[in-house]
Amino acid sequence: MPELLVRCPITHRSVPVGFRTDRAAFESPKGDIASAVRCPHCRRLHGWSKRTAWLEDDAQRVTVPLFG
Ligand SMILES: [Zn+2]
Hints:
3-stranded antiparallel β-sheet; 5 strands; two-stranded antiparallel ribbon; mainly beta; globular
């Protein structure tokens, strides 16, 4: 299964959150996922949810994540 990635707001690099899911579950509107990950780039803790994360399969398509 693809891994979920989030964007580090400090370094703007992608961070694997250590959570894998399949696309159907990720795109399902029910059951949001929210957690926090220790960033390997800036060493800070970043909160994330399905709204701010993307699947690593989509990394080529996602160049600028939506803010807000
Ligand atoms: Zn970071």
